[in-house]
Amino acid sequence: VRSIPSLLVLALAALGCTGEIGSGGPPSVGGAGGTLVASGGSGATGPAGSGGNSGASAGSSGGSAGIGSPGSGGASGGTPPSGTGGSAGTPVGDPNAAGPMPLRHLTSREYRNSVLALVNDRSLAENDVPSETSNPTFEYYPFRQPGSVGVVEAESLQLAAEAIAKNVAANVTTLLPCQPANAGEEAGCARTFIETFGRKAYRRAPTPAEVSRLETLYGEGRTTLGLDFRGAVALLVEAILQSPAFYYLDPRDSGPAEIDPNGNVVKLGGTSLASRLSYFLWGAPPDDDLLTTAESGGLATVDGVTSAARRLATDMRARDMMADFADDLLDLDILQSRGKDPETYPAYGLPLQEAMREEVRRYATAVVFDGDAKLSTLLTSTSTFVNGSLAALYGIPGVNGDTFGPATFPAGQRGGLLTLAGFLANTGSADGSVPPRRGKFVYARMLCTELPPPPNEIPAVTPPMPGLTTRARFELHDQNPCATGCHSILDGLGFAFENYDGIGAYRTTEEGAPVDAASSYAFDDVNPVPFAGAVALGAVLAAEPLAQACFAKQWLRYALHRQEVSADEASLDTATSVFRSQGGSIPELWVALATSRTFRYRAPASDEVLP
Amino acid sequence: VKSPRYRRRTFLQGLGLGAGFLPLLDPHEAPAQTAGFPTRLITITWTNGVIPNQFYPAAGALGTLPPLLAPLEPHKSKVLALRQTNAANSPIDLKVMIDKNETYTGHGAYPALLTGTWTGTIEMPSAEAPSIDQLIANDLVTKGVASPLLNLGARPYSSSTTWKSAGAKNTAQTDPYKVFNSLFSGVPTMPGTPMPTPGTPTVDPLKVRRKSVLDFVGGELDQFANGLGSEDRTKVQSHIEAIAQLEARLAGMSGAAGSGGTGEGTPVGTGCAAPTLPSNKPNFNDVNNYPAHVAATLAVAGAAVKCDFARCITIDLIDDGGGNSLTFPWLGISNDDYHAIAHLGEAGYASKAPIDVWFMQQVAALVADLAATPEGNGSVLDNTCILVTNDMNEGANHWVGQVPYLIIGSAGGFFKQGQTVTLPRNVPNNQLLTSVCHAMGLMVPSIGAYPGDLDSVLRA
Predict the structure, then answer these.
(1) A457 and B104: CB-CB below 8 Å?
(2) Which of A198, A368, B262, B275 has a CA positioned 20 to 30 A from the CA of residue A316?
């Protein structure tokens, strides 16, 4: 007999154990560094959700640098790897191995940065090209996952390319490497354009066949379409922006493939590696310097890659990348769609949401580029940037207007990325805090650990009432045996944030009772580590090997643009060791990842025909 | 081995492009279909279950509808409800989930609703086969219909009801303005305005330009696919097919609505008019604009059907797999979100009922739109099947048994109307989906793991 439980859970909602969903595209926010395209949308509708989060969830409950056994293949894999739990500092993986590099197309951010680099046009909004949305369950894989191209995406690319071409047509001269003096020189100039612009767009020299096909299209433009020289050049731009050589990050090279029999892996060719490097550290295509270095073999050695990575890591474009990473890690693209009760939080609206998102971007960027660039600082710094609305939320006096300026948090109230309002509002409910949701974020995103599945039947959390804080309500709930599974794990971490309400305002009392944010968590599953609140938790996490290893793993995912597999294990271990030995320096971690085996090499795809 | 280029050409030929003029309005054979008029399928889905004792009408002819169906009252003569013989609940189970011990995991049920398959985990659910909208669209393509499928949505998704193939979901277009630009540029905004005469050789520079570029891009993709591993090649193949679809749509433009309909009475496309959307596009990320978002989405869907720009439309109004995604300030509900309210079960019904009714009002608006558009001796609604369903039984139990399905419109006379059909409990949703395929002229013996259909009880 099937029983239908009549009273189930609010808590499950809070937990997100069942996959909560947010919505909508991100708000329009300028990049912290300002060199690249804005990360926000244009107030358009929610992204088309092209990819979804299909990455496998990695388990690593034991060791500090553990990595899953192979899933079914990186970013597209759907098989949760089982945790193996490597031990800190002792590489257990095959040092010769490298993971796969599945074909993927540019993300919306990358596409727009590429258009910016090519034609200096920033007119496209996030949703004007196929875009990705975070899964708002604080899933284990936080980053953008481009999906495949269907009709919706292809049409979106078509319209975007047409819009850019229209702008280009009005301003062709600035793009042309030559100025034909007469009609007889036009075809030659078009060919030169194809070769030079094609190299920039394809991030490698176009093949003779590619040049020839583009010349044919140019000819069609001049004849069938009746376009003049400039119009036909704009047509070429329109076509190139829809070409697979532009839109996809192709792991292949012209060949012959350099296969290392140790590990049976293929070494990335110079230009492929250059693209991988620049889209990792810049979210943008290689500049001429990097491309030229790559073409002359300058990226063939670890030293060459190290030097290129160090140059890229200090460029303004890396600032935007860091801001984007923080934005992705905290799922801030869904912040705007979090409904909040206007009576409880009258201050919460679009301006404050945008300010929250901008603060995270500036905060993270400042730590890395204007500070000591260490993980510990990212998780503890009390220096931030606020505008008037955010200052009001934080209780920082004397700041008005929309302009952001440097500020310091009120003493003792905040410190670290996880005390910023953007994170706290995104993990709050419509009218309050939800400790397990914040706990789950720390658990999944900062510790890279995975929850057991929720039970089918969970009793409800006691509703709000005078004299009962949120914590007290959830503690009552936690005593219930069938809720203990998740909550004993999540609430220990989540209670640390109880000094912040549903939009991140600081509080010391709730429902007339004092707030208690002291808590503890056993990172080793045995010995509870106490912390007095979220500020203290930030310092604990910074020193915690599990959190350090997780942070390195998140960056590995970001760098490779896919879920980790066992073949990445030795590379990740090495990078994590470097990260630790360099005092938790984030740029040193980037360089370690960029020079790792699994970044410079790849496992050939099944059935792939290597050139 | 066939080259990708060859496959693309074959695909184009399959779309009828090899033969010049593309007959978008190819009348295909389907049982009980009004002669000469296309049948259409529109699925409308949302989440968090229903309130069972306010949803299922009594058996037999429909009397006054239960509270959650009240918005359909003016159209109840076009409604087919399903319930158990002995209980006020749905007879339909997502048996493919229950088989996998996924009994109370309704938040992950979207892939099962229209595919009759399910795999993965609740947080990453997937389908093992195409959904019926895709299958029916594939069938229509072989019958010469250019772009029968349109997947729409109003809130982002971790999941989807529509699946192109195993493991590959279709992307829902969430921006109705983009759909508008794609489908209705050039369509008169007032019904009755003459459409361009089919086949008239007008030179549209944009069309010629797009043809050139798409041909180039398709060729580049064909080259690009060479030598890739099989998984990567699948991705490029999807792109190649998308380009072919755009080419087909381009070719089909010249002979779109207004040309067809061989039956008596009003021809197809007479009611074709571009939908009216707010001239200033609302910020659809703002919760307060969700009603405008849904209204625009349904208006575009209705117009697409009336103009015969699409035959199969899926609309995921929301995929609220949890958390804080949507409050309903326009209903005075802003201190709790939809998911949290649903989780309260009976304690939350006072808030949930108005929300559920609001969703049904949106359905009713589309129903009214189609019913008011004559086609043949009836209306567009008569040639349409609107399939309404939800990801779970009830919002607190998350049960994937006894999941509500509602049919509005007879799909050209196929389905019974104006009544509640009773069934024994534990009918796999596969059988219902198979009958919907039959109504749409796709005569498959089964959908997903469970064979059989419900034709004998559902057919008029």
Answers:
(1) yes
(2) A198
